[in-house]
């Protein structure tokens, strides 16, 4: 646990945001209109509850916040740094995002990589990394739940959950919206949704997204201008609601995604030796590569949610299917050509993909509706996944395939769970839950062309585990509540495919014990809202991924333990009736504790960790990769009421401190602190029915390395450049 003295110091440090409260108080007398924040309802405990009453550190994003962040055609990585303790990154571009909560995540990019952060879309887990990149459109909200959520959600949630809920059909009226934006590099984003009542019992909601960006990066090696960095993306969702009575309803959901364009562009030797600075002649719009670069993906899915209200209890059945018809990504991993830029020891061009992935899930849940102090929910859960993954190497001169390795994995799991809440008094509620999980994975190599596999060609792993949580919430008054929570979680064993020199590797199951306490408050007659939480966790047997080093390999290892602690705070409110601000921040300290753990060092970088007699690098005491100590986010919106509408200006800023790209620490592979801001100004009229706006993302044009490849040269990839655009949105 955190020592109280340290906890108090951090609480005092974060209380610097509270002058906003003073400003709010001072404006009370002068304001003629007193706007209030809307009540935020979340489903962090699988029930709809006021966010203030939930004993979990949770953030909700919805409405204008999401529209602003997504207006320029951004993919799901837009969430990085937008809420406390959340980072999102990818070495695959718009596909295969990797999530980190409180510094706890996984850098693994292999086909069947598992993550400790679970992404759940419409109550269906998106287990494979490819599924986690489904676009965000026509959603009611995004919830970020921090800390273990293994009792009620299951499926690898020891770090937390990112939960998306689509806007649902209703029987009330025809309604919807449409939005179109055009930005730099002919980046376009068109989004629309329509809710259509079909009868007194049936309603339909159709949603669609279309995104495009022109190629705008020149390949100076092939002399092709505007040949890279473009994309085409479209996604659809159709939902049907059947509600024949007040006691039963059925919701049917069918969705798909198709994307193609450039894969991540790796750039050879863009990092200055001995520093983490970009080289002086760096230019985002130019690259020299002799490899092919492409990416395409097609996914589809469907789910059915049935609800029966039987008076004293509610029954739920959630059946889900998610599939990857095809995924393929190919890129120049060394980032250059035999002539450079800079020294490139050898040429590496790889491709990889996933085909025929099928995921089936089924959950049955019973929820009580007692008017008394005791309420409960219980259920069973089933998960089954199977698919084929492969990786290829190519000759960069002929572009012909030189080797091929294909593997197949089956994963089957089931769980039983239950949760109970009891109102000890009108002010004090205790909650507890338990979940028992059995997880089985069968993995095998099915094809190896020009690859001599070391070791076994198949591996079977299984694990049984019980997790639990216990929390208490106390209402200090009608506006302020405090909570404390202890929770455990687990991630099932993971398996990584073999390579030319490395056998199939297995990381055993990891477990976490987390302690958390916090306070949530509505302030100044609900003109403001604030929350503050502190936490401490320990992960035993943590799964870590060793990528690169001195060769192009990926293998799994376990660390004896890793630890984390920190705090998170959020405040939002009206300074005046027309001026609204938000401020959030987090501090995360993580540390690997395993004196016997060593990894291979990079080929050309400057290592700052101890190097053993065997030439390997000790990572004991290092922070977890991609774990930023500090994350801050701030927004401000000012509104000028006019005769027929409203003129507004909105700005948003995010900051994350430096991160390690790999398990070891090196000067070149430490990502600098990153600050990015956006500005949006516009006019809405007819009661907000229509809106036109101009926007800019990454307003300072901050450009820096956000990831790297370490086994060859000082290869890196960078963040998105500045973008200007305009948007029109209408509602009906």
Verbal overview:
The chain is mainly β. It contains three helices and 42 strands. The strands form nine sheets. The protein has a 22-stranded antiparallel beta barrel. Strands 3-8-9-6-7 form a five-stranded mixed sheet, with no helix packed on it.
Strand-helix topology:
Elements: H1 4-14, H2 19-26, E1 41-42, E2 49-50, E3 57-61, H3 64-70, E4 86-89, E5 98-101, E6 117-121, E7 124-125, E8 139-146, E9 160-166, E10 175-183, E11 187-197, E12 202-213, E13 217-219, E14 224-228, E15 231-242, E16 248-261, E17 286-287, E18 294-309, E19 313-332, E20 349-368, E21 374-394, E22 401-423, E23 428-449, E24 458-475, E25 480-491, E26 494-496, E27 505-507, E28 510-523, E29 528-547, E30 554-576, E31 579-593, E32 598-599, E33 617-618, E34 630-641, E35 645-656, E36 659-660, E37 670-671, E38 674-685, E39 690-697, E40 705-709, E41 715-718, E42 723-731
Parallel strand pairs: 6-9, 13-17
Antiparallel strand pairs: 1-2, 3-8, 4-5, 6-7, 8-9, 10-11, 10-42, 11-12, 12-15, 13-14, 15-16, 16-18, 18-19, 19-20, 20-21, 21-22, 22-23, 23-24, 24-25, 25-28, 26-27, 28-29, 29-30, 30-31, 31-34, 32-33, 34-35, 35-38, 36-37, 38-39, 39-42, 40-41
């Amino acid at each position: 646990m955190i020592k109280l003295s340290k906890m108090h110091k951090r609480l005092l440090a974060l209380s610097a945001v509270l002058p906003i409260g003073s400003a709010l108080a001072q404006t009370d007398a002068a304001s003629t209109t007193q706007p209030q924040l809307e009540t935020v309802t979340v489903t962090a405990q699988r029930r709809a509850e006021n966010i203030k009453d939930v004993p979990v550190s949770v953030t909700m994003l919805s409405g204008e916040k999401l529209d602003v962040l997504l207006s320029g055609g951004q993919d799901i990585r837009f969430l990085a740094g937008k809420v406390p303790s959340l980072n999102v990154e990818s070495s695959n571009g718009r596909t295969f995002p990797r999530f980190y909560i409180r510094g706890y995540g996984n850098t693994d990019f292999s086909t069947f990589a598992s993550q400790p952060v679970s992404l759940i879309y419409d109550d269906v887990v998106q287990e494979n990394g490819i599924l986690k990149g489904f676009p965000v459109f026509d959603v009611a909200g995004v919830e970020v739940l921090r800390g273990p959520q293994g009792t009620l959600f299951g499926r690898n949630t020891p770090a937390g959950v990112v939960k998306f809920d689509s806007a649902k059909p209703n029987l009330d009226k025809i309604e919807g919206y449409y939005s179109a934006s055009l930005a730099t590099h002919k980046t376009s984003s068109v989004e629309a949704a329509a809710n259509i009542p079909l009868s007194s019992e049936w309603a339909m909601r159709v949603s669609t997204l279309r995104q495009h960006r022109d190629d705008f990066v020149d390949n100076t090696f092939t002399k092709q201008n505007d040949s890279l960095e473009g994309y085409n993306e479209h996604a659809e969702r159709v939902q049907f609601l059947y509600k024949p009575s007040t006691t039963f309803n059925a919701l049917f959901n069918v969705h798909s995604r198709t994307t193609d364009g450039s894969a991540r562009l790796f750039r050879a030797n863009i990092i200055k030796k001995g520093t983490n600075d970009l080289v002086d002649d760096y230019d985002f719009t130019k690259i020299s590569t002799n490899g092919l670069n492409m990416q395409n993906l097609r996914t589809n899915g469907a789910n059915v949610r049935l609800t029966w209200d039987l008076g004293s209890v509610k029954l739920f059945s959630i059946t889900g299917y998610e599939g990857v018809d095809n995924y393929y990504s190919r890129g120049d991993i060394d980032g250059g050509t035999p002539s450079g830029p800079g020294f490139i020891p050898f040429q590496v061009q790889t491709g990889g993909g996933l085909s025929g992935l099928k995921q089936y899930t089924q959950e049955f849940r019973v929820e009580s509706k007692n008017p008394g102090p005791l309420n409960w929910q219980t259920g069973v859960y089933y998960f089954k996944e199977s698919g084929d993954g492969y990786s290829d190497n190519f000759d960069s001169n002929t572009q012909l395939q030189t080797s091929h390795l294909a593997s197949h994995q089956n994963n089957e799991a089931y769980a039983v769970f239950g949760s109970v809440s009891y109102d000890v008094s009108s002010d004090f509620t205790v909650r507890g839950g338990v979940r028992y999980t059995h997880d089985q994975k069968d993995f095998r190599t099915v094809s190896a062309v020009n690859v001599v596999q070391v070791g076994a060609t198949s591996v079977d792993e299984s694990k049984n585990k019980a997790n639990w949580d216990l929390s208490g919430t106390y209402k200090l008054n009608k506006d302020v509540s405090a909570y404390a929570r202890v929770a455990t979680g687990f991630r099932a064993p993971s398996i990584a495919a073999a390579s030319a020199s490395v056998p199939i590797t297995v990381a055993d199951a990891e477990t976490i014990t987390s302690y958390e306490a916090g306070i949530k408050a509505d302030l100044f007659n609900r003109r403001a809202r604030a929350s503050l939480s502190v936490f401490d966790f320990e992960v035993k047997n943590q799964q870590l991924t060793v990528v690169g080093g001195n060769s192009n390999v990926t293998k799994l290892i376990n660390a004896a333990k890793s630890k984390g602690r920190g705090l998170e705070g959020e405040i939002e409110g009206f300074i005046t009736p027309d001026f609204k601000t938000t401020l959030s921040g987090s501090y995360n300290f993580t540390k690997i504790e395993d004196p016997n753990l060593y990894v291979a060092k990079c080929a050309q970088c400057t290592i700052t960790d101890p190097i053993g007699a065997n030439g390997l690098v000790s990572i004991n005491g290092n922070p977890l990769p991609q774990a930023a100590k500090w994350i801050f986010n701030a927004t401000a919106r000012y509104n000028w009421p006019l005769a027929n509408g409203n003129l507004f200006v909105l700005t948003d800023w995010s900051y994350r401190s430096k991160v390690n790209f790999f398990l070891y620490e090196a000067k070149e592979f430490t990502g600098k602190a990153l600050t990015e801001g956006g500005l949006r100004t516009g006019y809405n009229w007819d009661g907000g029915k229509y809106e036109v706006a101009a926007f800019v993302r990454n307003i300072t044009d901050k450009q820096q390395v956000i990831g790297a490849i370490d086994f060859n040269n000082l290869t890196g990839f960078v963040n998105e450049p500045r973008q200007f655009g305009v948007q029109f949105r209408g509602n009906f």
